[in-house]
Amino acid sequence: MPSSLNPDAVAMATLEPSRYLLCIAGAWQAAHAGATFAVTNPATNALLTAVPDAGATETQAAVDAAAAALPTWAATPAPARAAVLRRAAMLMLERQEHLATIMTLEQGKPLSEARGEIAYAASFLTWFAGEAERIYGMTIPASQPHKRLLVLRQPVGVCALITPWNFPSAMITRKLGPALAAGCTVVAKPAEQTPLSALELGHIFLEAGLPPGCFNLITCQNPEPFAEVIFADERVRKVSFTGSTEVGKLLMRAAATTVKRLSLELGGNAPFIVFADADLDAAVQGALASKFRNAGQTCVCANRIFVERAMYAPFAERFAAAVAALPVGNGLAPTTAIGPLIDAQARAKVERHISDALAGGATLLTGGAAMPDAGAGHFWRPTVLGAANAQMLIAREETFGPVAPLIPFDDETTVLREANATPFGLAAYAYTRDLARAWRIAEGLEYGIIGINDPIPSTAQAPFGGLKQSGLGREGGPSGIDEYLEEKYVALGIG
Ligand code: SIN
Fold first, then answer.
1. Does the C-beta of 123 come closer than 6 Å to ligand 1?
2. Do residues 412 and 273 lie in contact, with contact meaning Cβ atoms separated by under 8 Å?
3. The CATH homologous superfamily of the domain defined by 270-459
4. How far is the centre of ligand 1, averaged over its atoms, from the C-alpha of 340 (Å)?
5. What is the pLDDT of residues 346-396, one digit of tens each?
6. 361 Ramachandran zone, left/alpha/beta (phi>0; psi -120 to 50)
């Protein structure tokens, strides 16, 4: 980190603590009892600011506000709803630098990635602004001459959105964009580690002309009172969650009580397969991009890198050299490629996965240790492990950190079987120059998102979501808005 960079000074100059309150019915307010909790910088462990620690009372008020705002917003013409989304996207892009700095301060990712995330987040708003204007119904030819059959598509109703810390802006807009485009109103709860980016979005939407009550924001440290209120309230018709499979299962059980619709974007265990016929440079760069995005803290990060034996030695050598050269540090420094992990627990998991792999016979090709010289932040030296295998913890669980295990393989059939041998099915990647193989692999991989010679397939225009225990439903793409619409069938007798 350059010596001129004082992250705490950047924080003081960037953050206005008075902006970070609960947003209920368009009014910014403290928690009832004045309770707050600390938001800290994972790069320095320094306090950034405090935000309201809301409970059941504030959540109930937010649901009431969303329910009160629903009829008017649902009846607002689609082009007017779209215009609000487009204005919000424009404001985000105008403030990209400021928003990216806030994100880096609270989440730790390098500023270049944070800028990219703001653009990615805004793109969901423009995409769904377009989709708002194309919510077509249907007419169906009836079998009786005196009947007309119609299908209307209407907003689901009040939606609760629960979002994670790894993409503090984009995971909200990927849900909020289609919800508002469809005519739904929202109560959102951002992750307790990264509430500031979400609260900034609340300000932006009000400035963009979104009526009060359409987007309510609750910050809290303990999610239980929030969850109890939203799952008990009949008016909340849908819950969308991005986070762990473990929590997703709890939410599925909770949703049964009032039969709410659910969208779940859960954990992954992405295979990244490098065939011997691949372009070696492209495969090395692709594995770097996929594995080390956000220091390995994405649900779609490569988790197991399978390399065909004929390509294994050159790939391992080049990949380990490239990983060893990645600059680690405070995300605010312009040269940083790898920021800190989110907290001490995340770092402990990385450590556990590495020691289990080394005990099981893996070899350390680079990295392998925390960075005690990096101050109070949760930094980990980017790591590559050679000769890993499917039995190791690192191949069975999602590591969510900057560690890449390389697993050699001998043939297509075996690697496909191994790649699919997991309860998860979010994203998978393959590098090959053989078109027929590319098709076979894309069809054979049991995953919702497949990148062939593409390490970052995520985009607002395409469906994002998983198979098996990686979730339910799709976000983004042409089908993303369907998650927030109900189909209503009308049979019209014409005598
Ligand atoms: C995630 O990690 O859940 C999201 C990553 C992406 O949108 O590409």
1. no
2. no
3. Aldehyde Dehydrogenase; Chain A, domain 2 (3.40.309.10)
4. 18
5. 999 999 999 999 999 999 999 999 886 667 889 999 999 999 999 999 999
6. left
Helix (H, G, I), strand (E, B) or coil at 169: coil
pLDDT in tens, 42-100: 999 999 999 999 999 999 999 999 999 999 999 999 999 999 999 999 999 999 999 99
Amino acid at 268: G
Determine which residue's CA is closest to atom 8 belonging to ligand 1: 458
Instruction: Indicate which atom in ligand 1 lies nearest the CA of residue 120.
Output: 7
What are the structural domain ranges in the chain? Answer: 7-266+471-489, 270-459
How confident is the model over 140-185, as pLDDT tens digits? 999 999 999 999 999 999 999 999 999 999 999 999 999 999 999 9
Which amino acid residue places its CA nearest to atom 7 of ligand 1? 458
Residues in CB range of 50: below 8 A, 6 or more apart: 17, 20, 36, 37, 38, 39
Both tokens of 85, joined, read 């989304």
Please tell me the distance from the alpha carbon of residue 19 to that of residue 199, in angstroms, as a whole number.
8
Range 197-232 burial, b when 16+ CB lie within 10 A, else e: bbbbbbbbbbebebbebbbbbbbbeeeebbbebbbe
What is the architecture, at CATH level 2, of domain 7-266+471-489? 3-Layer(aba) Sandwich (3.40)
- Ligand 1 pocket test target in 269, 400, 464 with most atoms within 8 Å of CB: 464
Cβ of 242 below 6 Å from ligand 1: yes
Active-site residue flag, 200: no
Strand (E) or helix (H) holding 185: strand 185-189
The catalytically annotated residue of 106, 299, 308, 398 is: 299
> Is 184 assigned a catalytic role?
no
Overall size of the chain counted in residues: 495
Q: Look at ligand 1, atom 3, and give the residue with the nearest C-alpha.
A: 299
**CB of 163 closer than 6 A to ligand 1?**
no
